[in-house]
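Subject: Predicted fold for VOC domain-containing protein, 116 residues

User T.R. writes:
Posting the sequence so we have a shared reference for the thread.
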Amino acid sequence: MAVTAIDVQVDDVSAAVALLSAAYGWAVTADEPGFGELLAGDLRVMLSRDAMVDWGRTSGVILHDYVDDVATTVERAVAAGAELLMGPVRTDWGTESAYLRGPGNLIVDVCRDVPR
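User M.O. replies:
I've generated the structure tokens; pasting them so everyone works from the same file.
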């Protein structure tokens, strides 16, 4: 079995949907005030303002988006309103990565595998 969806809590669903679509080209399948959903390849990224079960606020989630051209993706993401936190850099685990922040402290690592 594979993980096919992830749900991330954000304060402003519409702003997060708009940024993820514009910055990373993810297809929007739902955009409502309390819930949004995008397709990032085979993964559904769901964005919720509130959880069906009250487990409190979550944090520490990073979405990793594998792309062909990290620099171009970073430029598009920054133009769409993402904040560049770090990169692009070559990591010691074999990727070129850049970390960006969007609404609600949503972090996306745009990366690609590179030869070591």
